[in-house]
Amino acid sequence: MEWLNETLVREFVFLGFSSLAGLQQLLFAIFLLVYLFTLGTNAVIISTIVLDRALHTPMYFFLAVLSCFETCYTFIIVPKMLVDLLVQKKTISFLGCAIQMFSFLFLGCSHSFLLAAMGYDRYVAICDPLRYTVLMGYGMCLGLVAAACACGFTVSLVTTSLVFHLPFHSSNQLHHFFCDISPVLKLASHHSRLSQLVIFMLGVFALIIPLLLILVSYIRIISAILKIPSSVGRYKAFSTCASHLIVVTVHYGCASFIYLRPKSNYSSSQDALISVSYTILTPLFNPMIYSLRNKEFKSALRRAMVQTSYPVN
Question: Beta-carbon neighbour count of residue 110 at 10 Å?
Answer without folding.
Answer: 26
